[in-house]
Amino acid sequence: EVQLVQSGAEVKKPGESLKISCKASGYTFTNNWIGWVRQMPGKGLEWMGIIYPGDSDTRYSPSFEGQVTFSVDKSTNTAYLQWSSLKASDTAIYYCARHRISATVTSHDVFAIWGQGTMVTVSS
Amino acid sequence: VLTQSPATLSVSPGERATLSCRASQSVTSSYLAWYQQKPGQAPRLLIYGASSRATGIPDRFSGSESGTDFTLTISRLEPEDFAVYYCQHYGRLPFSFGPGTTVEIK
Predict the structure, then answer these.
(1) B30 at the A interface (CB within 8 A)?
(2) Is there a contact between A44 and B88 if contact means CB atoms under 8 Å apart?
(3) Tens-digit pLDDT profile for chain B (106 aa)?
(4) Which residues, in sequence order, are bridge partners of residue B65?
(5) Interchain pair A100, B48: CB under 8 A
(6) Chains A, B: CB contacts under 8 A, how many?
(7) A71, A109, B34, B82: which could form a disulfide with B46 (CB 3.0–4.6 Å)?
(8) Computed from CA positions of residues B71, B38, B57, B105, in that sequence, does the dihedral angle turn out positive or negative?
(9) Does the CB of B63 have a partner CB in chain A at under 8 Å?
(10) Which of B33, B43, B86 sits opposite A114 (nearest CB)?
């Protein structure tokens, strides 16, 4: 079964750093782009960007570029989303999601497989 | 930029629901998708390529397009269909989601 399993909820203080994870299983990790989606409390979905696990090529939304960093570890089939200095406005659920089709076909694709989400709370 | 209407749609079970998503500019090659999200759950892909159903999606869900206007139709609402629906374009970076339409029980 293809699945993405995300790390557990986090509670952090403003200014702290954080790295959350998304572990893939059931398929070849380097075949498909993986993306991140933010959902602030009671709000809609925001596309943050995507990363290609094969070579770590990344495409960030301008809204998130410079604010977060995507990375992968091919040895553990895990994608990461990290912050160097959290703000209260980073409080949200963060979903990782996998593109539907192979990266060799296109990087323009939909999210067919989703993780369960990681709740990040930033509060002093 | 994607706009969705209405923001909230009140429908009775068994009735038809029609949701709209309008793009501010041409969506490359019909690269428009629809997702369903229920409370406390991750989104689920329903439709991609404007009109292709994702794996396992019932045929009561259908998508169509007319220029920059896209429509998701749920032919006969089942109790499990009451949720928030988002459209997403993926033809030009950055890909983005619409603000969502809530389908609620009338």
Answers:
(1) no
(2) no
(3) 899 999 999 999 999 999 999 998 776 768 999 999 999 999 999 999 999 999 999 999 999 999 889 999 999 999 999 999 999 999 999 999 999 999 999 9
(4) B70
(5) yes
(6) 63
(7) B34
(8) negative
(9) no
(10) B43
Contacts of A45 (CB under 8 A, 6+ apart): A37, A38, A39, B35, B37, B43, B86, B88, B97, B100
Q: For chain A, say whether B102 makes contact (Cβ under 8 Å).
A: no
The residue to which tokens 């428009």 are assigned: B32
Query: How many angstroms from the chain centroid is the CA of residue A58?
Result: 11
Q: Which residues of chain A make contact with B44, given a CB cutoff of 8 A? A: 114
Distances (CA, A) of A48 to A36, B67, B105: 5, 27, 32
* Closest CA in chain B for residue A115: B42
Question: How long, in residues, is chain A?
Answer: 124
Dump pLDDT digits (tens) for A56-115: 999 999 999 999 999 999 999 999 999 999 999 999 999 999 999 988 888 899 999 999
Place of tokens 């509670």: A11
For an interface test with A, give the residue of B29, B41, B90, B102 to mutate (most A CBs within 10 A): B90
Question: Please, what's the largest Cα pairwise distance for chain A?
Answer: 45
Sign for the CA dihedral angle at B81, B104, A98, A108 comes to positive
